[in-house]
Specification:
single chain, mainly alpha, two-stranded antiparallel ribbon, 4 helices, about 60% helix, globular, DUF3046, DUF3046 domain-containing protein
Length: about 70
């Protein structure tokens, strides 16, 4: 998954403003206690980060975006 696709999906799920906040403030268990921004900055693959988002917010992410 390209980084631009990742951000588009995150904005679809949380909205443009809140997506950035989630990326910077929410520590996700699937990312070993890192935020989305930290994981991406440390070279984690976008698909791995997206899967962590889906796991952390299963009721929020529509199945078409899994």
């Amino acid at each position: 998954m390209r980084l631009t696709d990742f951000w588009e999906r995150l904005e679809q799920v949380f909205g443009p403003g809140y997506a950035r906040s989630v990326a910077e403030d929410q520590v996700l268990p699937g990312l070993d206690g890192r935020t989305i921004r930290q994981a991406l900055a440390q070279g984690e693959q976008t698909i791995t980060v997206w899967r962590a988002v889906v796991a952390a917010f299963p009721d929020r992410v529509p199945s078409k975006l899994h």
